[in-house]
Fold:
Amino acid sequence: MILPWFPDAAPGAGLAGGLLIGLSAALMLLGAGRIAGVSGIASRAFGISDSGMSWSSAWTFIVGLPLGALIVTRLSGAPIPDFAPLPLLALAGLLVGFGARLGSGCTSGHGVCGVSRFSQRSIVATATFMATGMATVALMRMFA
Amino acid sequence: MIRRHLPPLLSGLLFGAGLALGGMTDPARVRGFLDIFGAWDPTLAFVMGAALAVMTVAWRFVPRMRHPLFAEKFALPDRNDLTGRLVGGSMLFGLGWGIAGLCPGPGFAALAIAPLEAAVFTVSMVSGMVLQRLFFERGARASPS
Structure:
């Protein structure tokens, strides 16, 4: 599938990937009764928060993330993408971790699980990090 | 044991597979979506749209269920207040997200794709979570978020 005006976009793969993410979050919700929020589950796994799911369940979920990605990349044979230089990745990681905990969630917990529940906190959080992310990319494009 | 760990394992696998399939483990795709003044790449909107469609349906089942399929009760957030922390935290998150084109899920998933880069990002991310707890939750024992 190719979108007019956006020849580089991958709408078909995007929809398929989003479907899997939605099924994952639905399984967590209807199966375990919890939000599939990666930042919250990670903080539980690393002992930063002691609320939420069991420690072993949190680790099981976190380990599943690279395993699932590995299966897909092995099957598709997609090339290894480019990442930012290591110092920028370190800075970004600090901001993402600090911000996700302070804001009670990230792209998965607020963006997928919260917005689909029409939670006003999640809608405000998602609009805020999308706007800030867009401003950041625009500024980096201007000065880099 | 298996009954209790099957949902989180399957959920993690599906989530990681979905991120990779949807191109979200490629920072250029994510930054391309955020790059509204440049060569905008709408792929992330398709990923999010499909995930939201599935989850909007899933939420409708919750009120009709007495308990989750594999657990005794639902444990869901119930806060509805808009706070400075929510907005300030989301701004810091967006800043980091824009710089690297990575957020927590793709950060862990990318460990299978670019181990060094993803490890630097995720170790820093967990450090940021520890710092947040030191700054804001000092003395408070794990307030439910």
In short: The two ends of chain A are 33 Å apart (CA to CA). Chain A touches chain B through 116 residues (CB under 8 Å). The first helix of chain A runs from residue 11 to 32. Helices of chain A lie at 11-32, 38-45, 55-76, 86-102, 107-114, 120-143.
